[in-house]
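Long-time lurker, first post.

We've been arguing in lab meeting about whether zinc ion would sit comfortably in this protein at all. Half the group thinks yes, half thinks no, and nobody has a model to point at. So I'm putting the question to the forum: if I give you the sequence and the SMILES, can you give me back a predicted structure of the complex? Inputs are below. Any interpretation is welcome too.
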Amino acid sequence: MFTFIPCAAGCGRSAITGSNICAVHSAEAEAEAKRIALYIAGEETITDLNAEGLRFDEVDFSGRRFDGCTFQNASFYRCNFSSSFMRVCFFDFANLSECNFEKSNLTFLSFAGASISNSTFRYSEICNVNYGGCVISGVVFDHSKLYNSRFIRANLEDTSIIDCDLKQVNLIKICKTNVIIKSSNTNEAIHTMEQIQK
Ligand SMILES: [Zn+2]
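Top reply:
Settle the argument with this. Predicted structure of the protein with zinc ion, as tokens:
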């Protein structure tokens, strides 16, 4: 798991991997994001990376394995995570737009409070992933297994969940606008607190 090295500016945030300061206090956050992207490009497995608060535009993260990495509060625009294999990674309060997670294998990830728009998670294994409090707009989850994932208090609009495995998926207090859910086992999902308390 990534280690917490406090930012040298004393702000209490975590320093970026390979730096002694956080993205907010870095005078060259753009260069730091490029450095991290270059590092990822050169590795098959990325472990314990801290890239909190950085902005990534059109970066190829595909086909790689990520273990114990944090991208909290980071921004991703047109990034490719397809065929990636991720374990225990954090995208809390991140902003993801036009990103591709197709055919990925995601377990124990957290997107809590994140904003995910115009992106795709099709044909993926999404197990124990937390989308709690997410704003999800224009996202396609079709043909994916979402086993035991949680969308508690998420706001979903213009989103498609077709032919998905929703076993034990927690949909408590979600807000839906123009969400297509079909050919999925919604009867095996959790819709109310009473179902948990049984
Ligand atoms: Zn700082």
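For your lab meeting: Residues 7, 9, 11, 13, 21-22, 24-25 surround zinc ion (CB under 6 Å). The radius of gyration is 17 Å. Whichever side wins, do check it experimentally.
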